[in-house]
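Chain X:
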Amino acid sequence: MSPIISISNLSKTYATGFHALKGINLDIARGEIFALLGPNGAGKTTLISTVCGIVNPSGGTVTVDGHDILTDFRKARELIGLVPQELTTDAFETVWATTSFSRGLFGKAANPAHIERVLKDLSLWDKKDNKIMTLSGGMKRRVLIAKALSHEPRILFLDEPTAGVDVQLRKDMWEVVRKLRASGVTIILTTHYIEEAEEMADRIGVINKGELIVVEEKKTLISKLGKKQLTLELQKKLDAVPQVIFADQLTLSADGMNLTYTYDTEAERTGITRLLNALSEADIRFRDLSTTQSSLEDIFVDLVRQPR
């Protein structure tokens, strides 16, 4: 099946000379949840804005379900719903009015039943007659999602959708996203909350300084780039890392009571058995041991720290 979004050699250079995007190549599969991660200024919002037709590319091509974003703009754009970072809403309008108006902007016939369903799914139904200016920040964020879904898009871009939203509202939004994906909507998510990507995404892309540095399935990324650590709780204090095999992979805690061995999850052999035998021969005994694995956050931090 062909990808619903295909990005080829996409670049963006602003008038100031700043290279916001550098040769981006990316395909988004139909019905997937794709998380785009990156530090501030990495190019996440520029990439989304370009696909949505808000920013003109300097080079390359983007197609949305086969429609070129430049030569077939209307067809491409009507397939997309966008939830921007900024809380840009008509403060004096009601929730119902602004959501219905957004549908009309795409030339869609009025459909009160659809608007009602969207507002109910987002727990906004009891606020439908409220002016937006009276809503909390979290509720305004939900209104943005309702507006983006008003014209029944097949692709939904969520640019930092839960920024400034409390934990419960965040979880509610995750549930909405799952329901949308189940209905066939493709979701592209940017977020600063690494646990959000870990919880929601099928695939993850990391962008830094305008370059897409990795794109992998979530499980593959954690497996391939993650590391495991074996921590030994020692019976006696050590003053220094013992000179045994794999000593360069050992770290000693500040109190000298814990020894941690870091190893590659992809390696054919972990070396744990040989290490434990070597420690035993060196008369280093331990009370207990535990293992941990790198989180997605650890991997992300390592990736963006690497010089490019």
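Chain Y:
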Amino acid sequence: MNNPGLQKSSSGGLLAWARSRKGQKVWLPIAFMIIPLGLLILFTYYPFAEMVRFSFYKMKYTTPIDKRQFVGLKNYIDVFRRKDCFGALKLSLYYVVGALLQLVIALYLATILSFKVKGGNFFKGLMFFPYLINGIAIGFIFKFFYTRGFVFDTVLQWCGFQLDNLPYWLKDQSVNNWSLVATSVWRYFGQNMVLFIGAIMSVDDTLYEAAALDGANKWQMFRNIILPSIKTIVTLNIILSITGSLSAFEQPYVITNGANGTGTYFVIMNEIAHVSQKVGLASAMAVVLLLIIFACTILQKLFFKFVFRDAESEDESYAAKKARLKAEKESKAALKKGGAGA
């Protein structure tokens, strides 16, 4: 037999707990997380799980559920067997090389612009501006930039080159992928540069003074002070750049539509999914790319953990130099004070 008094007492105790400070610390975060987590599960994790499930089937978008053909790992095997899929995966190496070059340029310019340079702020804004432009717009800009006889060819003719001796920048397969990579480098190096500048400007200036007293040159300051101090940003930028290069899409899709051997992995995936309607194979390609990105991220973290293994000891040595510099200044001040007293 139910006891109404006991039920009322328990509900009243629960309400009192919910109103208490301890209760609010529990249910308020849960209440605020319910909607974001629900949206994340509904629009991210559930579609991802469905994509993984589709990768084991031979199907189209319009194929009824009862007519989908289960093929197991066949789609994953086809990713590496099909010339267009695996060739597009190898094409990503162009963009990986471009990403590394982009980071070198960004780090070089960031190191220069982090210190007092005449017109430095103007150059920072000028080089960051391409990142603010929409990727589709950049694609159309460079589509006309590289077109035969247009902007790039005209500039080269001003420099003394003959038009007949110039390649077709978007058709010649020996240069067309490098042309697209150059477009990507132009767009993204400003973003990397700004991140590097922010990290470099956070380095303590007295470390440079200590290094200068030891007779260190600019390269030694960069290698022993700047690079170890910004190792986290360097690692982050490289991971983002390389993973981004594996999923390049906008430039090759807008500029060439993947023609003449410029179809990147995402362009081929888009064609297989939306033109050929091979949803299972496209889903398997997406899962393979995700696994490759995970593997690259882990390998990069291990690599930089090895490269920067001595960074802490370098920081400690310069911390000692900083203390010595401070002691020298105090000693000089004491000597001046003693001389004035005499």
